[in-house]
């Protein structure tokens, strides 16, 4: 029998004084995706909250090739990049030491190019793909079950893990943990491929509990040691998980107060039975989609965790409860989240229907802002929140938005400040300067006054009320001519440089 929901998780009910409107529809599209175009906003407004949430959650749990044949990153044009590990092994057969060294250098170069193409492909899919909430969840799980491209030097394994996140994004959490524990990139990243009974490696066991399932203070050092023994022998050969029985510790283990001949799956099952697990995962999702929980939100998160447990660890019921709840549409949630760098870039492209720029031109800006896809800073993922903005990143955030909407390339601005403009590649400069930015669509012709133009673009981009003085300042920037295309584009660049635009 399902337990009653916490009052803050009860469905948001529209009333005469608090109706389902553009503000709430925009909030849903920002948090459950990367922002909405005017057409998407109108669609969600017309659908109503519950149907809109169901629409966003209606995505296939399948790899890209099943969703869109041939839709993954195209790595076939990379010279010398092997299609699989067996092919890579054959390259070294019969080669001299000098030839092997040259091959390793070529593979490293090819892998860097493959990693960059994979990063760019994923960001473009976030901006233009048919299932924005699917991609938003994949991004969440990538930061939760963290693996980094710098440590995992095989792009193919990073892509394989991305596909795992895609298959399991809103699926069964129990099965998700079982599969991520067998994922080759994860086995490499947290050294479980080196976890053998003679020399147990505790890295994966520790992070499985501290970061992936329970949180701190929910386990002992002995639990880590015993869990590490349970995961001995879990490794991979190329892109396939393998169990090496000769490396597995088959002895009796005591974990979380239970004793038995446990393996990794047994440890996972015991973890799921810990009362802290479900609220912890619910809290991580709540923080990502709604707001950072406080101490007083503990009962709410326990209630949300119960939704997942009572549904056999299926995550869609939890996500639906979260996105339809009263708290999700409360003042604590709406317009209070600092956009991540990826949200900032992808949302700008998506909401303005821009052509996605070449990733190599974005990579430096994302790196300076603190978030490159497939490259979290450490096993804790991206810290996020207020840490997204500081004196260094704010300048880059503003100028990246300006460039995306047709202004000057941020790399040129940064290099001029450092007195080394020559470091910007000529070809990259040429391509960046060809970025046309916003296309002013025919509907803008109906706007007759500068105030109407300013109000339209603020509603389209910030999607929340702003102070009247800011609208006046934006209108004044048009110089009294609402039809001046160049002036309107400059005004749009001012909007994406506003502090208000950094929030969603």
Number of strands: 4
How much strand content do the residues show?
Answer: under 5%
Sequence of secondary-structure elements: HHHHHHHHHHHHEEEEHHHHHHHHHHHH
Sheet having the most strands: 2 strands, antiparallel
Fraction of helical residues:
40-55%
Radius of gyration: 25 Å
First-to-last CA distance? 37 Å
Using brief descriptors, characterize the structure shown.
single chain, 504 residues, mainly alpha, two-stranded antiparallel ribbon, globular
How does this model look, in words?
Among the domains are: 19-50, no CATH class; 59-170; 341-433, no CATH class; 442-502. The protein has 24 helices and four strands. It has helices spanning 22-31, 38-47, 49-57, 64-67, 85-92, 97-128, 132-144, 155-168, 173-180, 184-189, 203-213, 221-230, 264-273, 277-289, 298-310, 316-324, 341-351, 359-369, 391-404, 410-417, 426-433, 450-461, 468-476, 485-495; strands spanning 234-237, 240-243, 253-255, 258-260. A two-stranded antiparallel ribbon has the order 1-2. A two-stranded antiparallel sheet has the order 3-4. Helix 18 (359-369) packs antiparallel against helix 19.
Write the layout of secondary structure elements.
Layout: H1 22-31, H2 38-47, H3 49-57, H4 64-67, H5 85-92, H6 97-128, H7 132-144, H8 155-168, H9 173-180, H10 184-189, H11 203-213, H12 221-230, E1 234-237, E2 240-243, E3 253-255, E4 258-260, H13 264-273, H14 277-289, H15 298-310, H16 316-324, H17 341-351, H18 359-369, H19 391-404, H20 410-417, H21 426-433, H22 450-461, H23 468-476, H24 485-495
Antiparallel strand pairs: 1-2, 3-4
Helix pairs in contact: 1-2, 2-3, 3-16, 6-8, 6-17, 8-9, 11-12, 14-15, 14-16, 15-16, 17-19, 18-19, 22-23, 22-24
């Amino acid at each position: 029998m399902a337990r009653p929901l916490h009052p803050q998780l009860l469905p948001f009910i529209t009333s005469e004084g608090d109706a389902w409107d553009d503000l709430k529809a925009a909030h849903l599209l920002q948090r459950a995706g990367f922002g909405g175009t005017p057409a998407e906003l109108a669609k969600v407004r017309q659908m109503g909250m519950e149907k809109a949430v169901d629409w966003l959650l209606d995505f296939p749990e399948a790899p890209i090739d099943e969703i869109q044949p041939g839709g993954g990153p195209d790595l076939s044009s990379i010279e010398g990049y092997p299609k699989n590990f067996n092919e890579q092994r054959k390259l070294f057969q019969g080669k001299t030491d000098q030839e092997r060294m040259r091959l390793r250098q070529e593979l490293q170069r090819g892998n860097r190019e493959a990693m960059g193409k994979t990063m760019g492909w994923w960001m473009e899919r976030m901006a233009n793909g048919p299932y924005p909430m699917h991609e938003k969840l994949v991004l969440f799980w990538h930061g939760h079950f963290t693996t980094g491209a710098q440590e995992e030097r095989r792009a193919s394994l990073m892509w394989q893990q991305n596909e795992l996140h895609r298959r399991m994004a809103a699926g069964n959490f129990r099965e998700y943990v079982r599969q991520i524990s067998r994922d080759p990139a994860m086995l490499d990243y947290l050294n479980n491929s080196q976890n053998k009974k003679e020399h147990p490696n505790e890295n994966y066991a520790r992070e499985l509990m501290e970061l992936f399932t329970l949180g701190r203070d929910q386990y002992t050092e002995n639990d880590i040691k015993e869990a590490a023994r349970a995961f001995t022998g879990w490794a991979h050969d190329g892109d396939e998980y393998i169990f090496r029985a000769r490396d597995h510790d088959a002895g009796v283990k005591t974990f979380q107060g239970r004793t038995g001949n446990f393996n990794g799956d047994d440890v996972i099952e015991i973890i799921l039975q810990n009362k802290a697990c479900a609220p912890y995962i619910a809290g991580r999702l709540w923080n990502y989609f709604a707001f950072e929980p406080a101490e007083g939100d503990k009962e709410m998160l326990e209630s949300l965790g119960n939704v997942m447990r009572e549904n056999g660890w299926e995550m869609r019921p939890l996500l639906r409860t979260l996105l339809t709840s009263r708290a999700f549409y409360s003042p604590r949630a709406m317009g209070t989240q600092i956009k991540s760098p990826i949200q900032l870039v992808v949302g700008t492209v998506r909401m303005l229907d821009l052509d996605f720029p070449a990733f190599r031109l974005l990579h430096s800006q994302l790196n300076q802002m603190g978030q490159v896809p497939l490259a979290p800073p450490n096993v804790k993922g991206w810290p996020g929140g207020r840490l997204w903005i500081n004196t260094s990143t704010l300048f880059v955030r503003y100028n990246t938005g300006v460039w995306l909407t047709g202004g000057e390339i941020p790399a040129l601005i940064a290099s001029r400040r450092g007195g080394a403009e020559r470091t910007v590649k000529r070809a990259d400069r040429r391509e960046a300067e060809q970025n046309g930015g916003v296309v002013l669509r025919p509907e803008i012709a109906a706007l007759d006054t500068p105030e109407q133009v300013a109000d339209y673009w603020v509603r389209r981009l910030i999607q929340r009320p702003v102070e009247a003085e800011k609208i006046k300042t934006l209108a004044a920037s048009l110089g009294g001519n609402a039809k001046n295309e160049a002036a309107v584009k400059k005004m749009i660049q001012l909007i994406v440089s506003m502090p208000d635009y950094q929030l969603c």
